[in-house]
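Moderator note: this is an archived Q&A kept for reference. The question asked for a predicted structure of one protein chain; the sequence and the answer are reproduced below.
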Amino acid sequence: MRVGVLALQGDFREHLLAIESLGVQASAVKNPVELEAVDGLIIPGGESTTISKLIEIFGMLSPLRKFAATKPVLGTCAGLILLSNKVSGALADQQLIGGLPITTERNSYGGQLQSFEGQVDFVDGVSENVAFIRAPRILEHPEVEVVAKFQDEVVAVRHGTLMGASFHPELTGATHLHKLFISSFN
């Protein structure tokens, strides 16, 4: 099994290290050929409008949509925004990969100065400290499985082979979300 991490912008290096720390092969993905060589994909946090523009520039939008329709994909922070079917606060020309039947709101927890670390509780009983950096909020999630909450708010979801989280686990050394994602390959 090989997990790819979209490496156009954002904290892809940290996700690569997190996956490798779990004993799974990981590789950076920057083009459609590299995408075809992986079994699953992580879309990291970063700046969602920038990643969206780079996806278009590098000819990745259609390949990513096809990939996400059939293979495991995890989106964290900006990646969650890109996997959402609807985004409050998105720029008019921002392209989404879609697939998660949720509505998210960009920067809903505040700007850079309001970023924080907090304890998320996974539904399987595990709790981990993660980072919320200009994090999106999951506003509507009627058709998805809840994976984790922060206080009483849903912050991670799953729908079929797609997962999304409002937070950055890779920046605090948290790996439970990555483990759950890897387990979805079976």
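Archived answer notes: The domain at 2-183 is CATH 3.40.50.880 (Rossmann fold).
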